[in-house]
Amino acid sequence: MRKGTLFTVVGPSGVGKDSILNAAKNKVDAYFPKRYISRSAEVDNEDFIKVDQSQIDILLKEKRVAIHWYAHNNFYGIPIDIIYHLNKGTNVIFNGSRHAIKEYKQQFPELKIIYIDAKEEIVLERLKKRARENAKDIQLRLKRAKFDIPTGSIIINNEDDLDKAVIQLLSVMH
């Protein structure tokens, strides 16, 4: 039985998941694992470990990821060391995918889901500002944003003040 709580932060692209997580890192005693991601690290506010297909194959073969999924033609993986942190009583929080929650829950039934939300016009401006996608990709992401909120999610609105969203996240984790 694990002692720590596993949290995943999910929501549409551009709602500010990484911004909230980055702002919370020094304000809560929790483990924030670096994700393995196969996308380019050129323009990003997330600190992650870039991997290519041969590295992904090794990670999966050697069972060095606790959770993994594919989204937007990229591989995402959460390191296996989250289990060590959970077992020693540390809460773990990671940026996940709404589309992979069923798989997360199969492996970690006690998972807590934190859903970050914002109005479409705010998300549009954030996606343009981060300059990671072209106009067509932004429209596809906005279309994907219309998604049912997973059952049992704790909802945090991140439309105006990042500090408010961070405070809500911290209160959920306590």
Topology, element by element:
Elements: E1 6-10, H1 17-24, E2 30-31, E3 36-37, E4 49-50, H2 53-61, E5 65-71, E6 74-79, H3 81-87, E7 91-95, H4 101-107, E8 112-117, H5 120-130, H6 135-144, E9 154-157, H7 162-173
Parallel strand pairs: 1-7, 1-8, 2-7, 3-4, 8-9
Antiparallel strand pairs: 3-6, 5-6
Helix pairs in contact: 1-7
Give short descriptive properties of this protein.
alpha/beta, Rossmann fold, four-stranded mixed β-sheet, 37% helix, 22% strand
Describe this protein's structure.
By secondary structure, the chain is an alpha/beta fold. It has one domain: 3-Layer(aba) Sandwich (Rossmann fold). Helices cover 37% and strands 22% of the residues. The protein has 7 helices and 9 strands. It has helices spanning 17-24, 53-61, 81-87, 101-107, 120-130, 135-144, 162-173; strands at residues 6-10, 30-31, 36-37, 49-50, 65-71, 74-79, 91-95, 112-117, 154-157. Strands 2-7-1-8-9 form a 5-stranded parallel sheet, with helices on both faces. Strands 4-3-6-5 form a 4-stranded mixed sheet. Strand 5 and strand 6 form a beta hairpin. Helix 1 (17-24) packs across helix 7. The radius of gyration is 16 Å and the shape is globular.
